[in-house]
Design brief:
single chain; 125 residues; 50% strand; globular; mainly beta; 10% helix; 1 helix; PH-domain like
């Protein structure tokens, strides 16, 4: 992952995207295992495909409308994100003209830590 100007990496983990639901239902190609990066400005999920690193999706933290942690033992991070703000390098995926929100369910090592950081950085000023 390449950091943008003025951006700092805050967290990095192996992650499993258990669910990615947009306005037209589930996006299977955006689900699965990868490496998640949380920076001071955005959340990025990358995975290895055919020997290359591919950005599965990324979005600015300001695009996060809601963040929660759900579960007792196997806690997961739940995010509600403005759909048109999500970018993906996966062929055939383009949310730029879409309305509404995407709901993401991501399994990471410290979902509460991610939720706290995202909540703090996604506040509308």
């Amino acid at each position: 992952m390449i950091l943008k100007s003025g951006e700092e990496k805050r967290r990095e983990d192996k992650a499993i995207v258990e669910e990615f639901k947009g306005d037209k239902g589930s996006e299977e190609s955006l689900q699965g295992e990868g490496n998640v990066f949380l920076t001071t400005q955005r959340l990025v999920l990358e995975k290895e495909a055919e020997g290359k690193t591919v950005t599965v999706f990324e979005f600015p933290l300001k695009a996060v409308d809601e963040v929660k942690v759900k579960g007792f033992i196997g806690k997961v991070l739940l995010l509600k994100v403005v759909l048109k703000k999500i970018n993906s390098a996966i062929k055939g995926i383009d949310f730029s003209g879409k309305k509404g929100f995407a709901n993401l369910k991501i399994k990471v090592n410290d979902p509460k830590g991610y939720a706290d950081e995202i909540s703090f950085r996604s506040r509308k000023t």
